[in-house]
Amino acid sequence: MDKKMQPGKKFFTFRYFMTGVFLALLLHCGESCLKDSYNNYSNPTDVDVSMINDGAKVVQAAFASGDANKIKGTLTADALQKYGSELDKTDPDLFSKLGASLKTRNLDVHSNLYAEYSYTHQGVTFTFALARQKDESWKLMRF
Q1: 95: which residues sit within 8 A by CB, 6+ positions away?
Q2: Using an 8 Å Cβ cutoff, are 114 and 129 in contact?
């Protein structure tokens, strides 16, 4: 019996080896690139942060009210389409609790068009994002 590997099996084994190396490379590069780009980001100094904070205050007040319609008024058009029907089904008490948690918010990242806050709710840190609208207001795009 010949102990040498057949040429077809060599290619088959090599193909799986290269697939594994490629996947490992993708996973490594994907993670390290994201961390580096976020850690090295510096917020621009020419952005009116008070306008962003005003938008966040409106969002916090809407959630604190427990009123789904007020919350809908703080959403971008895309977010309203995504979350709108679910808001009507949600317990208003949950909104009020979330509104209280939004008082702990910190502005982490911002630009002329996008802002991201972190906040703590029941001991867990979450994020929400605002987007600047054509009328210069800031609306909730993700939470």
Answers
A1: 63, 64, 65, 66, 67, 68, 71
A2: yes
The class (CATH top level) of 51-142 is alpha beta
Taking the domains of the chain in order of start, what are their residue ranges?
1-33, 51-142
Q: Give whole-number Cα distances, 35 to 65, 71, 126, 138, in Å.
A: 37, 32, 18, 27
Q: What is the mean pLDDT of the chain?
A: 85
Average pLDDT over residues 89-94: 94
Helix intervals (H) in 40-102:
49-65, 68-72, 77-88, 92-101
CA distances from 4 to 1, 7, 8, 11, 15 (A): 9, 9, 12, 13, 18
Token couple for 93: 């008490």
Across 13-35, average pLDDT: 63
Least Cα distance to 83 among 98, 69, 100 occurs for 69
String of b and e for 3-18 (b: at least 16 CB within 10 Å)?
Answer: eeeeeeeeeeeeeeee
88 three-state secondary structure: helix
Q: Write the CA distances from 80 to 19, 27, 43, 69, 88, integer angstroms.
A: 42, 34, 28, 11, 12
